[in-house]
Amino acid sequence: MIRVIAENLLQLAIVFPIIILMLKDRNLETLKILSAFAIFYLLNAVLLNLPFVYSETRIINGHWNWSGKLYAILGSLVFLSLYRKFPLSDYFLTLRQNKKFFIRGVFILSSILLINSIAAFSSATEALNIETLLFQFSMPGIDEEIAYRGIMLGLLLKVLKSNSLILNPSVWITALLFGMAHGLFLSKDFDVIFKFQPFFLSFLYGLVWGWITIKSGSILLALISHNLANGVGNLIRMR
C-alpha cells in the first residue's frame, strides 16, 4: 500500500504547481478545500487497490477488480456524507440536465462512441467474456465519473480560476490526473513507469467528459458515455 500512496502522491505533486498557479485566492478556506481534494484522491486510490494489497478484502472473485470499484464508490459516498460543505449539485451529482445543451451533448458523445468503435475494429480480437462485458458496461463509469468529473472537478472549481470553459484549469487538471491514473505508475522497486498511449487517450477522454459535465450540469452524460465506450469497445474486440 505504501507504493500505491507514493504513486498517487507523485501524481498529485505533478499537478499541484498548476493548481497553486491558478488559485483564485490564497486563504485558509482554499487550503481546506484543497486538503479535502487531496485526501479524497488518495482515499479513492487506496480503496481501489485494497483487494490487490490485501486479498482477504476481495469480496467478489473474478478477473476484474469488482471489489475495489465497489470500495471506491462506497468511499465517494462516505466522503460526500461527511464533507457536507457543498450541495450535491455542485459536484454535478444530479439527473437534471441543461436542456439547451442536452441534444448537442448527446451528439458529441455519440460521435465519441462511433470513433471509439471504429478504433476497436483495428484492435486484436478477443474471446467472448461475459464478466468483462458486465464490468465494462457498469463499474468504470460509476466509480470514475463520480470521483473525477463529480467530486474532484467540483472541488477544484471552487478554488481555481475559470476564465473560459475550453481553458478551464479544473477540467485540465482532472483530465491529467485521470490520464496519470491510467498511465503513470511506480514499480515494486519504485521506478517510474509511464505508458503514453493509455495516458494520452484517458487524458483526452477526461477533457471531453469534464467539458460535457460542466456544460450539461451533470455527470450523467459522461457516465453513460464512459460505460458505453468501454463496453462497446470490448464487445467489438470480441467479434
Topology:
Blueprint: H1 2-21, H2 28-53, H3 66-82, H4 99-121, H5 130-136, H6 139-159, H7 169-183, E1 184-186, E2 192-194, H8 196-216, H9 220-237
Antiparallel strand pairs: 1-2
Mean pLDDT: 92
- Inertia-based shape: globular
User: How is the quaternary structure best described?
Assistant: single chain
Q: How do the strands line up in the largest sheet?
A: 1-2
Report on the biggest sheet. Answer: 2 strands, antiparallel
Number of domains: 1
Give the low-confidence spans. Answer: none
Strand content range: under 5%
Rg over CA atoms, rounded to whole Å, is 18 Å
Helicity, as a percent range: over 70%
Q: Order of SSEs, N→C?
A: HHHHHHHEEHH
Which class of secondary structure composition applies to the elements? mainly alpha
Number of DSSP strand runs: 2
Alpha carbon gap, first and last residue: 38 Å
Could you walk me through the main structural features you see in this protein, from its secondary elements to its overall organization?
The protein has 239 residues and is an all-alpha fold. It has one domain. 70% of the residues lie in helices and 3% in strands. The chain is built from 9 helices and 2 strands. Strands 1-2 form a two-stranded antiparallel ribbon. A hairpin with a 5-residue loop joins strand 1 and strand 2. The termini are far apart. The model has no long low-confidence stretch (mean pLDDT 92).
What's the gist of this structure?
This protein has helices spanning 2-21, 28-53, 66-82, 99-121, 130-136, 139-159, 169-183, 196-216, 220-237; strands spanning 184-186, 192-194.
